[in-house]
């Protein structure tokens, strides 16, 4: 008879890292989906990963990989969860401008290590996100229009394949290398390390223009600031990457008083240049948005989280997106006029270096798109305007995206979240 303790003993005999019964559900940043495996294994390196796979195969156990849980993969209920948190070393080669990044590392750790050498990665907008999983969708970074997709900077990927062999995959294995950079690992593959090219650290200027558009439960009477941002992006130089978000905050006591019950517009901007360069390119946008708060200024790599100001507290959320050839003003008007349960709408400006063909072929979707629109709705148990179930959340998200569908060219997997999003990168 197979018992949990028997499984723990078998895995513990095979690897050097810790092994334990799962017990309660495994916490994730995405709390709407939970892992309930029988056993949690924490490999220390690729050798441990290679050693644990035969045990899982022999027992015919479902297996999933868990890093930060932002993009939670399909839960392996009753199976094995491979937690990569102990494979989080970050090694910088300043002469070659390379970072060797363990599969459990987060962007914050890479940013800090690279900054000590005057370097930075083409990182995303949230320092708490895991690097490896972020790269599998290509990685739409804060400087994407200048530096391209983060996948463009990947030099090699170390993984353990389904047969238990440790491989270093690079341009010499073009089909697998392309798949990993944009589509992700195949079933049975576990990535253990990524080698990423680094960039000079600066100067960078960035932050947000924040404006309250009125009460969240009433349609915005003046969507002009949204249209101004769209018009401003039409002829932007490639050293500027930007996006906007519109958030109708519920009236809840744990929120800051100036946000409660308010509809808030945030225009996020990063300029690969100094303050004078940023002021020149931002002048017409600043005049049109008339922000209540302007946080745009010198940007250190460690401070990238302030650009989009994304939440750092775990929560349940469902999201989807559309890649667009263009954005219609009617779609912006529809978002500004929307009332109802909380849905965060975000639009990111693509093109520039993000629109160029990859020098080393990959499978990143969206190189032919001009914009990406995403909608995200929280869900969970409870009551009140901020809490909806997964089914209603899906309907709210679909309703927002419908206003942009005429120019849709596809979807991007990295912006699809939740239990009812087909093809989502969990």
Description of the structure:
The chain has 426 residues and is of the alpha+beta class. The protein has helices at 4-14, 46-58, 107-115, 131-136, 144-147, 174-180, 224-233, 275-289, 305-308, 329-337, 390-402; strands at 19-21, 39-41, 63-66, 80-83, 90-93, 98-102, 119-120, 154-160, 166-169, 190-197, 199-200, 205-215, 240-248, 262-271, 293-294, 297-298, 317-324, 344-349, 371-378, 408-410. Strands 12, 13, 14, 15, 16, 17, 18, 19 and 20 form a nine-stranded antiparallel β-sheet that branches. A five-stranded antiparallel β-sheet has the order 5-6-10-8-9. A four-stranded mixed β-sheet has the order 1-2-4-3, covered by helices on one side. α7 packs antiparallel against α8. The longest helix is centred in the middle third of the chain and has 15 residues, at 275-289. The radius of gyration is 22 Å and the shape is globular.
CATH fold description of the largest domain:
Vanillyl-alcohol Oxidase, Chain A, domain 3
Largest sheet: 9 strands, antiparallel
Helix content: 10-25%
Count, helices: 11
Over the alpha carbons, how many angstroms does the gyration radius reach?
Answer: 22 Å
Please tell me what the overall shape is. Answer: globular
- What structural category characterises the helix and strand content? alpha+beta
